[in-house]
Design goal:
It is built from eight helices and 15 strands. The chain has one domain: Ribosomal Protein L22, Chain A (Alpha-Beta Complex), CATH 3.90.470.20. Helix content is 25%, strand content 19%. The protein has helices spanning 30-38, 42-49, 54-74, 141-147, 154-160, 166-187, 274-277, 289-296; strands spanning 17-21, 84-86, 92-94, 106-112, 115-121, 125-132, 198-201, 212-213, 217-220, 223-224, 229-234, 239-246, 270-272, 310-311, 314-315. The chain is of the alpha+beta class and 339 residues long.
């Protein structure tokens, strides 16, 4: 196995990375879509080609391009030499034999609503989730809350319902959900984790767009988990992002605020354009016009309530709604050109 590269390589000192891409407003041209698909690994092209809805395909594509951009620019690994793999639970990771100068390098992606987001750290365990506040697809907000009653503790429901208007209650609901998702993604357990084991003491109750806050505290089975820090921010009026952080050895790290630290930090999300996504890209496969033809036949998924538990990286179906539906994977004899 290739050992990690020494720090003497021309690798700039890496700080935490926070990126976001508005896949909801991205209307890719033929040239953009075909360049994007040439810039990812063949197995990811096949995976993206299975999505029924264009919104899901765009979000997945943005996520892959952000990961490759991250590795190319922060680890100084040539784009066409980057090998991404998936864990048994589907989480994308850098191949173990990569020339990575940071043994604890960690990244995570999420997409929901109009954004795909990425968080990366050279030395910290990280999980990220983005949630868009939107009305439930069916029924009223109180009915929706009743269905989701067991997902939060009594104290969390008190916080959610402490607001007079239902929209603000829904806003706080999704903020709580993003926090729980970020923790679950950071530890990589996905389904099967009892959400009521987690309780978040949220502070402040109101977030300003563009600021980042670290005051919210986590309690697990009633005990405060002081080694965890949670960055909270709003990308815009309707999108909450939560980033969970911890040292790999489980010890407390410097980003955990003290009790008298009430000021927001300044680690804001950088909003990327498509040109930013492919600024370091190197096409790795021949152009496939049929992939554009297939994409043109997909429809944008109708706006609905997308609420799911994660499976490390991707979202999985729940009884409330779904984020994505896939076609039956094409057989080797039936490539994407048969779509």
């Amino acid at each position: 196995m290739v050992s990690p590269a020494p720090r003497s390589r021309l690798v700039p000192a890496m700080e935490g990375v926070r990126w976001a891409f508005s896949c909801g407003t991205w209307l890719p041209s033929r040239a953009e879509w075909l360049l994007a698909v040439r810039s990812i690994q063949p197995e990811e092209k096949e995976r993206i080609g299975q999505f029924v809805f264009a919104r899901d395909a765009k979000a997945a594509m943005a996520g892959r391009l952000m990961i490759r951009k991250l590795v190319a620019e922060k680890l100084n690994i040539p784009w066409n030499n980057i090998r991404l793999q998936r864990t048994a639970k589907g989480k994308p990771v850098l191949a173990k034999d990569s020339l990575n100068p940071y043994p604890n390098f960690n990244f995570n992606v999420s997409h929901q609503g109009d954004y795909a987001v990425l968080a990366a750290e050279p030395e910290l365990q990280v999980g990220i989730d983005v949630m868009k506040t939107s009305f439930p697809g069916r029924g009223s907000i109180p009915e929706f809350f009743h269905i989701m009653k067991r997902k939060f503790t009594n104290k969390e429901w008190e916080t959610i319902r402490s607001f007079k208007d239902e929209w603000t209650q829904l806003d706080m609901f999704y903020r709580n959900w993003a926090l729980k998702e970020s923790f679950i993604k950071a530890i990589g357990v996905g389904l099967g984790f009892e959400l009521q084991r987690l309780e978040f003491d949220i502070s402040p109750l109101n977030l300003d767009i563009g600021q980042v806050y670290k005051e919210t505290r986590l309690f697990l089975d009633g005990e405060e988990e002081k080694e965890w820090a949670f960055e909270e921010s709003k990308i815009d009026e309707h999108h909450f992002v939560a980033v969970a952080l911890r040292k790999p050895d489980g010890s407390r790290h410097q980003d955990v605020p003290s009790q008298d630290d009430s000021k927001p930090t300044q680690r804001q999300f950088t909003i990327l354009t498509f040109n930013d996504l492919i600024s370091s890209a190197v096409p790795m496969t021949p152009e496939d016009p049929s992939f554009w033809d297939c994409f043109c036949f997909t429809e944008e998924i109708p706006i609905r309530n997308d609420l799911h538990l994660t499976s490390s990286e991707g979202r999985v179906s729940s009884h409330i709604s779904f984020l994505s539906v896939k076609r039956t994977p094409p057989s080797p004899a039936s490539p994407l050109s048969s779509c």
